[in-house]
Amino acid sequence: MQIGLFSGADCTTPSALVERGVEAEARGFASLWVPQTPFFDALTALAAVALRTSTIELGTGVVPVQTRHPATMAQQALTVAELAGDRVCLAVGATHAMVSEGWWGVPYKGIVDVVAEYIDIVRALLVDRTVDHVGPNYTARVTYPPGGAT
To answer: Does this model's pTM top 0.90?
Structure first.
């Protein structure tokens, strides 16, 4: 059995999270899971952790789809994966209605369909590095070059 560590909400700076990741790896944790927090962006923070670690798996838990376009999410995930040597697990989903509508002014109605469409676009870009999608919520006509960070 492998044991992972969920951290991030208790770290108020990216530097503190990096140190937590280094310590988690040294203590033998299999993975470090980091949520999107008001303190820092999860993927950016994991990129920093990736540069200071070599074996621990790195995962987001969970990055809200309302905060960025799916092509941008895929590009950022590919970049972190390149820095981490593919030790990354991307978890995306919807944030709470109060946060979506109250903080960002993004409608919450129909969020299940929004998330499904979002995941389809991200998956296509992560797997095939290309997508040609025009849907009810997103348009994405993107091709990322093969290999390396985008």
So the answer is: yes
Max CA distance (Å), the chain = 46
Report if residue 150 sits inside a domain.
no
Long-range contacts of 43-46 (CB under 8 A, 24+ apart): 43/76, 43/77, 43/80, 43/90, 44/14, 44/76, 45/8, 45/14, 45/17, 45/18, 46/80, 46/84, 46/88
* Cβ atoms < 10 Å from Cβ of 132: 10
Tell me which residue has tokens 């909400």. Answer: 9
16: Cβ contacts below 8 Å, ≥ 6 apart? none
Residue 112 forms part of a structural domain? yes
The CA distance from 116 to 149, in Å, is 25
Contact, 149 vs 84, CB < 8 A?
A: no
Q: Is residue 22 part of a domain?
A: yes
Q: What is the pLDDT of residues 55-101, one digit of tens each?
A: 999 999 999 999 999 999 999 999 999 999 989 999 999 999 999 99
